[in-house]
Amino acid sequence: MGAEGTSRAARRLPRNVLERLSRIELMVFDVDGVMTDGKLWFGADGEVLKVFNVLDGAGIKALSAAGVVAAVISGRESPITLRRCAELGIEHIAQGIADKGAAFDAMRHRLGKSAEVCGYMGDDEIDIPVMKRVGFAATVPNAADGVAEHAHWVSRREGGAGAVREVCDLLAQARALGSRGPTRGAGDA
After folding, report:
1. Which domain holds residue 47?
2. Which of 21, 69, 85, 116 has minimal Cβ neighbours within 10 Å of its Cβ?
3. This model's pTM is above 0.90
4. In the prediction, which pLDDT does 164 show?
5. Residue 136 is inside which H or E element, if any?
6. Under DSSP, is residue 138 helix (H, G, I), strand (E, B) or coil?
7. What would the DSSP string read from start to end of 24-75?
8. Would 166 be classed as within a structural domain?
9. What is the pLDDT of residues 92-128, one digit of tens each?
10. What are the pLDDT digits (tens) for 16-49?
11. β-strands 26-29, 118-121: how paired?
12. Does residue 91 form part of some domain?
């Protein structure tokens, strides 16, 4: 999605979602099912392979320019995730996490962030405790049953297929719109 299309998409968001987005300083992502399609490919030697979307990566890199720190909290431990995070400049990573709520609280405290200025994108029940805490919660359309009920926004694209890029673009646009003041959109009636 180009910058102009994203800007239009941001302006069409309900005012309360746009306001939530404009306050985000730390955006945390789940990995499997959000940054990837959730499939784990096992090689003959037992190695696990994951596929990441290059558009998602470009979106994450653009977050820094928009003043948003990207982070990862994943239930699985994976050297592939560490490598991808290093490529994207993601420094704040928690892996092998069973209690994502506690990991999120520890991460945000370490970074000096209140929950209200944090966003989270997850797709499974393990993500719900974080989604309930943050100022902006996002999910993917193919999330587990019940997860969308805890989200402020659901991407159009599925995990691993550009969902992360969608939220990154919206974050950047919302922050830009927030600095200029909101324009009248569909959610302003």
Report:
1. 3-183
2. 116
3. no
4. 98
5. strand 136-139
6. strand
7. -SEEEE-STTTTS-S--EEPTTS-EE----HHHHHHHHHHHHTT-EEEEE-S
8. yes
9. 999 999 999 999 999 999 999 999 999 999 999 999 9
10. 888 999 999 999 999 999 999 999 888 888 778 8
11. parallel
12. yes
User: Is residue 100 within 8 Å of 120, Cβ to Cβ?
Assistant: no
Single-letter amino acid code for the residue at 166: E
Domain count, the chain: 1
Res 180: pLDDT: 53
What are the tokens at 150? 């805890």
Give a yes or no: residue 189 inside a domain.
no
pLDDT digit string, tens, across residues 151-174: 999 999 999 999 999 999 999 888
Q: Does a structural domain hold residue 188? A: no
Over 80: is that where the pLDDT of 9 sits?
Answer: no
Beta bridge partner(s), residue 49:
41
Q: Residue 72 is part of a domain; what is its CATH number?
A: 3.40.50.1000
